[in-house]
Amino acid sequence: MTKPPRKSSKPLLHESDAPVRGRPRQRRDPAQPSLPLDPMPARIEPCLAQLKTRPPKGEDWVFEIKWDGYRLSVHIEPTGIRILTRGGHDWTHRFPAIKLAAMWLPVGSAILDGEAVVLDEQGRSDFGLLQQSLGGRGGKKISSDAIFMAFDLLYFDGHDLRKSELDVRRHLLEDLVPAGGQGDIRLSEEIEADGDQLLASACEHGLEGIIAKRRDAPYRSGQLGDWLKIKCVQSDSFFIVGYEKSTVARGNIGSLLLAGRKGVELIYVGSVGTGFKEKDAWALREMMDSITQKTPEIKYAGRRKNVVWLQPTLIAEIEYRARTDDGKIRHASYKGLREVQDTAAVYEIV
């Protein structure tokens, strides 16, 4: 159930029970003073969740389900709708159903933060299904299956909400996108539960994990600890920097060699040799054979044979169970390729 908004120390922009209106019904009286309006940002760097192994405790935190898809911001502007990726690329044309749903929201201007997902038959977000709906990495298909799970409201009819606490932003968002809706823009609902119990339930139902957010935090771009992610199974994006040839594996790919980022440097994080589907493996092999190079982009002291080094342009989504003491991933499985525009999502080593 959606948690009723807590009484905030800051005034809400909208307190009545009437639906939110984006435009006035009648002309403004010139004798009345004009309220100052904030300019609408062209783009906002997203707030990112820090990875933790256990949910936080205390009433300062609220929880949501973690969605497995593409992070997007939906801009409702006087000139039209824009849908931007985490890296700032315009993907409006790839999500026409989300665009149409945004046009019908009862607001003149707004910026919604959320995730584009495709749900499976059990209502769980599935990254592989989302990739298929977009035609795979580098595909040019539009997605008719993706929906937008909205979890924050950053701008509302002339007011920049980033300095407002989360409870305020959520109260306004729930007016725009009511809980329980089944349209192409839906509310990612807050869940009233103990964090440990919620995580256990999420894992039992095959979900990716949960998100914890500070109630009274403003919206701050970057990974600053206001949001936390706790996963049932670890999943991150890595550059493919090489592959090991095999005569018996699908696509003749024995394993992929992976790297994360540390500043401008690429650091080897391990390999993955499972999770490939026959068709996807051969398509991946064809892409890799077009970006080979003689020297590695990483410092590599391994003893693998028949390694082909690659330009770091392909980004793989990898699921794994644990990490070694030196930061290598263990029990990894290949999930799919991310779009070339999504380099912002590559794992950062701290």
Structural write-up:
By secondary structure, this protein is of the alpha+beta class. The protein has 2 domains: 138 residues, 2-Layer Sandwich (D-amino Acid Aminotransferase, Chain A, domain 1), CATH 3.30.470; 112 residues, OB fold (Dihydrolipoamide Acetyltransferase, E2P), CATH 2.40.50.140. Helices cover 14% and strands 31% of the residues. The protein is built from 5 helices and 19 strands. The strands form 4 sheets. Strands 11, 12, 13, 14, 15, 16 and 19 form a 7-stranded antiparallel sheet that branches. Strands 3, 4, 5, 6, 7 and 8 form a 6-stranded mixed sheet that branches. Strands 1-10-9-2 form a 4-stranded mixed sheet, with helices on one face.
Number of domains: 2
The total count of strands amounts to 19
Largest sheet: 7 strands, antiparallel
- Please state the CA-atom Rg, rounded to the nearest Å: 22 Å
Strand content: 25-35%
- The number of helical segments is 5
* Spans where pLDDT lies below 50 across 5 or more residues: 1-5, 7-26
- Under the CATH scheme, the architecture of the largest domain is 2-Layer Sandwich
CATH class of the largest domain: Alpha Beta
Itemize the secondary structure elements and their pairings.
Layout: E1 50-51, E2 61-65, E3 70-77, E4 80-85, H1 96-103, E5 110-117, H2 127-133, E6 147-156, E7 159-160, H3 166-176, E8 185-187, H4 195-204, E9 209-214, E10 227-231, E11 234-245, E12 253-262, E13 265-272, H5 278-289, E14 292-293, E15 307-310, E16 315-320, E17 322-323, E18 329-330, E19 333-338
Parallel strand pairs: 1-10, 6-8
Antiparallel strand pairs: 2-9, 3-4, 3-5, 5-6, 6-7, 9-10, 11-12, 11-15, 11-16, 12-13, 14-15, 16-19, 17-18
